[in-house]
Predict the 3D structure of the following.
Amino acid sequence: MNIAYICTEKLPSPAIKGGAIQLMIDGIAPFISQTNKLTIFSITDPLLPVRECRNGIEYIRFPKETYEHDVAAELAKHSFDVIHVFNRPAHMAKYKEAAKQSSFVLSLHNDMFSPLKLCKEKAEQALQSSTLITAVSEYIKQTVIRRYHVPEQKIRVAYSGVDLEKYVPIWTEEGERIRRQLRQTFGIDDQKVIVFIGRLSKTKGPHLLIQCMPDLLLRHPDARLVIVGGKWFSENTWDDYVSMLHRLSAPLKNHIIFTNYIPSEQIPRMFLIGDVFVCSSQWHEPLARVHYEAMAAGIPIITTNRGGNPEIIRHLENGFVINHYHDATAFSKAIDYMFTHPEKAQEMARIGREEVERQFQFRHVAQRFAAIYEEAFTNHCLH
């Protein structure tokens, strides 16, 4: 088939500046392009040409300011069998108008049908323009079904994944070597390390991890919290929230380490610095991709019962799920549990790694989407 991917206007593709959607596209595109012709639309970037063919995939890039308009104009020049629009229901009607003969798959990576983001008229146009819709979690699927009369079978849950080759489990010889090297770099010896990886924003909740440290240090005086990330993708500027995090951590001195922004290609290694990974999400997380990454790295996981997170992390089976997600004490108790039950923590981590091997690799994600494209194409032809 002749397939087009339309990225969001936030970040370029390939994922030279990170981004969950861009990283997923990088992961599945090589598999999809093996048996299909693939064109990827994204925004321009000084480091990338406006048009190029790379590994058999055509990339077409337009300025952020006129992106939606330029993409629609370009679609009219092609005859794509399937057009996959990533996370932008608001633009669906415009794209459909430009490529009436194509079938459309809309994938939802956030609650994009929230009335705060999309008015009823636009939402209904998007639903009408889509042949099939995919959601990154059952939680996101239900946000649409609850608001609009969408047939259950029109929305498919397509869980994401990782490139397993980039993740060395912590219990291997190489994993141990990387761990020692990283710890040396950040001045950590045999201390117990909690690692947070994500954007430094209130919705991601790193402040709660800092707040839980004084309580945790009473039981584990050698604990260290490593906060990996910047304010935004590829940015280390400070805003009020980042300044607050630094103020909050100042009394704890060397018990808290900020790494600042780390390029996405180095993230798989960063998990290995930790004894436990914590996703402290406060918002209705669609299903944070860091879960798949931590599972792949073989790190015990603590997460919050928010949005889609508990769909793949099951309490005391392959991780620890916190219900009182806004309470710092709940985090110190969960971390204490992982530190005082190392064998149980390791068992959960190994189950997580096995699950990634079995169903959350990018080749699995590509298979899920390939089946959806086939169905969308067939449905469109029948109608």
Remarks:
- The CA atoms of residues 88 and 157 lie 17 Å apart.
- The mean pLDDT is 96.
- The radius of gyration is 21 Å.
